[in-house]
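Figure 2 data, in text form.
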Amino acid sequence: MQYISDIMPRAAFFGALLLLVNRNTACAQPTIMDSAVNPVNGHTYYLLSNSDWTNAELASIALGGHLATVRNLSENTWIWNRWGTNNLWIGLHDPSSGDGSGAQHAADFVWTSGETNAYRNWAAGEPDNSFGQEYVVDIIPSNATGGASFWNDVQDALYGPPGVHGVAEVNTSTISLTNGLVAYYPFNGNANDASGNGYNGTVNGATLTTDRFNNPDTAYYFNGSNSSIDLTPLAFNNLTQGTIGTWIELDSTMQETIFAKQHPGANSYGIFTVGYYVASNGGPIPGQPGELYYHAANNEGNASSSTLLSAGVWHHVAVVFSSTNCDLYIDGNPSGSFSGNFSVPNDTSAITSIGDWGADVGIGMVGRIDDFRIYNRALSSSEVSQLYALEAGGLLLTNEPATVTNNVGDNVIMTVGATGSPMDFQWYFSGTNIDNGSNSTLRIASITQPYFGNYYVIVTNAFGSIVSSIGTIYEPATILSQPTNVIVPLQSPARFSVLATGYPAPSFYQWIFNGTNIAGANSNSLTIPSVKLSDTGNYQVLVSNAIGATNSLIAALDIPPTITAPFVGATPIWGRAATLSVGAIGNGTLAYQWYFNGQPISGAVYPQLDFSSIQLTNSGFYSVVISSPYGSVTNAAYEVAVDPAVISLGFYPGLTINGAMGNSYLIQRSANLSSPTNWQTVSSLTLYQPVELWIDTSVDASSPFNNMYFYQVIPQ
């Protein structure tokens, strides 16, 4: 019969998973605060830090188990005595959320482990669903009657944040059973060593037969005279402590050899027999039929069982030895303990055989042997019991669900390998059983986002059940909704966003502008409060989780044409050159079209509209439309009024000069008469008629900013 030979240590694996579950809940993720092994069932229990019930259950699954299943008062008391100073989450819950109707409500509660035990320890009046949605259970310090360690139904997050301590229960019995395994012979069609150490056996006369589950060719029959499976001495050598465990079915209980190692003509070591023992000189001595014996070496004593084996019945037998003592086990139960040096010395040339002591004695086995194991360490009593319990049911996992990475739309296949009698399978996703998940292979066609996460399977047969380790379907960061192009006016806000998923959920975002990371832009959205022209360009975002990263598509930020220097009208002078202009910015190529009295002006497609000699007929209302691929803007119509001429009215000093024709004069002025040197000549004048008028056009007498002047006329 084949059983698991490489059960992986789970502590490190599940420690990593503990960080991945359900990041989006309100309470902090629970961590391990303490642990203990229940001596009754050998399961490991973990005290978790405060959280809501859901996170406590997810963390328990990540550890390889569930919140604790409490099977009896003794177990309830053991949990409470260890950690019962505050409320404690356990695995009892009501998947239907309860209906608040007393006993009917109580009947709805089930264990997350899938076990069906009926033990309950409700506090008085509980469950009552008093606040509604009270579908999870905790152990409480006290209730109205004053008693401790009773149970109460509460809401999932009633105590949180920060929440309540959870008690996780993990069946760690299989974890230790490959530690120190030197050789393992499941006899599945051959005598090869399944431990991975390469100590394959050589079959001499033994024949394949059915095992204890009637599986063909999965055990060996020995005829007692010329049949054995010979091993290399290295498979059982130089051991200060060790364990032999195997299944046997005896045709006779008189004198049977299960295993022997002897150097011919010299010492014998590790003689494992039924119905006879080994004398101090190394010879066989008949014992009680059905009694199990183990002999370490010459001049050492024998260990013998306190119970007897029966013929025609499969039994599990084991010997656990060290340099100080030896313990025998039959069907997982202790059956004799002896003091003494039972260690195995170093001898690499001794004959080593299963089913025969052929070196000097020639006493063989008549019957069947299956699942022969050799360890280089002394298994504990609980480990021997666990090994027996697991192999008795034939319910062992040969391979665990794999952890894989897939994308949405992939077809996913998860498998578990198990051996034993007829088995039932039930797959679970995040603690909830899966419809149609009742085969050793779970097929998920075209997986969608909600179904990435943790999967495990419970395998059950008539002897019990076993829970696989967790296989996780991871999804790398995947973008569901890409950022889109944004067009906003200048100095307006702009926002980009991305919607991403994955398992675990995306934990990092990095926005990128024109190929350069934007410092501090690390969320699923990016907002630019007031867009400048320099902000326009290409944006994208890198999204990642613990499994992988992906870049979004590029989204562009653009601004439509925006007028920065508007045209507001003009009053040019008739006949002179004139220019009308508008200033604008925007992305892309800007196109211009000027309009006169609402009609487009042919060829007026530039920011400036030039007139080499503007005419009175050009007076009217002018507007301009600026456009680009991202929009357009219109400069409203303003009037252009062409002036025929510019006329101004001024007051100027005038002098009337009466004299003889032909005389010439100097005209001088002074703003200060305090000195004769202040006079300045501003013009000269020759009379061509007796009276002439001279005007000083450089002085506007109407302006308050001009000086007051005095004038004089003197001959030249």
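Caption note: The chain has a mean pLDDT of 85.
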